Amino acid sequence: MTDEEMEKSYRSGLPGILGVIDTAISKMEAVILAMGVLLMALNTVTNVVARFVFGNSIMFSGELNRILIIMITFAGIGYAARHGRHIRMSAIYDALPVGGRKVLMIGIALFTSLVMFFLLYYSIIYIVDLYSKGRVLPSLGLPIWIIYLWVPLGFLVTGIQYLLTAVKNVTSHDVYLSTGVVDGYKDTETEV
């Protein structure tokens, strides 16, 4: 299965209800990311046209793009973890035999999961602090804390995804980068 086919028809490598939940979250992430990028492009193009045709920018355009960037970024980290797309520095990892890779991948996934849950905790504290200050966006009038709700949600989904990756590696024979991506390199050489 190619990357394009996998992204179009993601199926979790997890058994039972975990697989159903993982697949549902994947579909929600895909919709959020697609809609976010499309809305940001539409908002930006509309603002440029308004500025050059009518001589005035759309007052809330910058704030809306800020909200969409936060949403795309923190929905995207879970998506990247699910599809094994995070940047890896793998010189030591690649030099290890399969058993060593498996142990290291379990350790990496568990450590990354803990870091995500740590950041989740601090992002909630940050949102509570913003809530207590009562600040609002000048043009849209939304409380600022609302636009940051994507941050803990993204850390939660990513933390769970890395935890499930560790579980997948403990319970299976192969080494997995995520619950559905087996470790390995594609042949990237091209024929001349």
UniProtKB/TrEMBL annotation:
Protein name as it appears in the record: TRAP transporter small permease protein
Annotated organism of origin: Vreelandella maris
Gene Ontology molecular-function annotations: transmembrane transporter activity
Main localization of the protein described in the UniProt heading: membrane
Entry's Gene Ontology cellular component terms: plasma membrane
GO biological process: C4-dicarboxylate transport
Location(s), subcellular: Cell inner membrane
Record family assignment: Belongs to the TRAP transporter small permease family.
Membrane association type: Multi-pass membrane protein
InterPro entries, sorted: DctQ (IPR055348), TRAP_DctQ (IPR007387)
Residues of the Tripartite ATP-independent periplasmic transporters DctQ component domain: 40-170
